[in-house]
Amino acid sequence: MALEQNLTQPPDYGAQRRRVGRGVVTLGSFALTLFLTFLGLLAITFFIGRVIPIDPVLSVVGDRATQAQYDAAKIAMGLDRPLWQQFISYVGSVFTGDLGQSVSTGRPVIEDLSRFFPATFEMATLGILIGVALGVPLGVTAAARQGSWLDQTIRVVGLLGYSVPAFWLGLVGLAVFYARLRWVGGPGRLDIFYDGLVEPVTGMILVDSLIRGEIDIFWNAVSHIILPASVLGFFSLAYIARMTRSFMLEQLSQEFVTTARVKGLSERVVIWRHAFKPIRVPLITVVGLSYAGLLEGSVMIETVFSWPGIGNYLTTALLNADMNAVLGATLVVGAVFIAINKISDVLYRVLDPRAR
User: Fold this and answer.
1) Which residues, at least 6 apart from 91, have a Cβ–Cβ distance to it below 8 Å?
2) Which range, 3-12, 87-96, 137-146, is most confident?
3) What is the pLDDT of residues 238-259, one digit of tens each?
4) Residue 335: other Cβ atoms inside 10 A
5) Percent of all residues in the chain with a pLDDT value above 70, rounded to a whole number
6) Which of 15, 196, 235, 267 is the most core-located residue (most Cβ within 10 A)?
7) Sign of the CA dihedral 328, 330, 333, 336?
């Protein structure tokens, strides 16, 4: 009888419409938040570019230009208009993909960024993979053996990751592993006789060399990237291991862990299946923040290793007072930071139903 009633009961279209409506509202709210955040980033980069003591007109015409040439260039660049008009024009240009012309390279900034950003992305991605692969097990091990010599050693390693300057560690790595032991390649992405042999597809030399079937170039690229990526991975490892240890200590003191041990489960099962499972969600945020930090904070590493990434590009632009390049690079780094945070939020909601 109950089955017949269920079969004859009409579907609840009102509930379906409400679910669809909530989904549309959620998606719209997410898109609006993303748009407003990006607009705020545009405002910050624009007004910082206007208040720093660098004259973008002078960087274009040079310090030997006449006043007439200076005024003509200022009008051509639109810097004679009120600040709010300049900002509206700047926002319109950004949303159409126009970030201006680079004084340093003579190319459009968007073209430069498409060439330099993949190198940073490749190195930072490998660095975060190293940091996660080593940092999470070390943090779990330190928490499981709290107070032991192993815990103290891991905590010291984490402290070194917070206190050692990146440029110093990079120079020491080059001196030891490249100059002395010859275990890795030197500065740059490839040896000079391999440079330009692989036609770029993604801009990431490891991926492009595999796509083209150039195995020798792939292994040469690995020998060059492994040291700077390991240095970046060491700094992310320190942060991830420290946070993992903190999360695990909190979980290991919970009653459900004690219950699992009383039931006779092995320590491995208790730690990885019961205690580690609840910390996966906060770890996503930690890894996301660490990854974004590697992408935006690799300036010193790229300078030390002569890595042709966005950090090196930004440094060169600052030294040359190339404001279009500086603002464009800053905008891209900020946009990537926003994107990674939003992806972390989405994964947070997927793994934790309580956050939906």
Assistant:
1) 39, 42
2) 137-146
3) 899 999 999 998 888 888 888 8
4) 15
5) 89
6) 235
7) negative
> What band does 192 get if pLDDT is binned at 50, 70 and 90?
confident
Nearest residue to 245 (alpha-carbon basis) of 135, 102, 80: 135
Token pair 């310090």 is found at 63
Structure token digits, residue 331: 């905008």
Instruction: Please state the three-class secondary structure of the chain as a single string.
Output: CHHHHHHHCCCCHHHHHHHHHHHHHHHHHHHHHHHHHHHHHHHHHHHHHHHCCCCHHHHHHCCCCCHHHHHHHHHHCCCCCCHHHHHHHHHHHHHCCCCCECCCCCCEHHHHHHHHHHHHHHHHHHHHHHHHHHHHHHHHHHHHCCCCHHHHHHHHHHHHHHHCCHHHHHHHHHHHHHHHCCCCCCCCCCCCCCCCCCCCCCCCHHHHHHHCCCHHHHHHHHHHHHHHHHHHHHHHHHHHHHHHHHHHHHHHCCHHHHHHHHCCCCHHHHHHHHHCHHHHHHHHHHHHHHHHHHHHCCHHHHHHCCCCCHHHHHHHHHHCCCHHHHHHHHHHHHHHHHHHHHHHHHHHHHHCHHHC
Distance from C-alpha of 333 to C-alpha of 273, rounded to nearest angstrom: 37
Q: What is the pLDDT at residue 126?
A: 93
What is the average pLDDT across 40-62?
A: 75
- Beta carbons within 8 Å of 279's beta carbon, 6+ residues apart: 244, 247, 248, 251
Q: Pull the structure tokens for residue 322.
A: 């190339």
> Domain 109-355: which topology?
MetI-like fold (1.10.3720)
- Residue spans per domain, the chain: 109-355
Contact yes or no for 121/204 (Cβ under 8 A)? yes
Rounded mean pLDDT, 76-85: 77
Q: What pLDDT does residue 11 have? A: 56
Q: Do 117 and 296 meet the contact criterion of CB atoms below 8 Å apart?
A: no
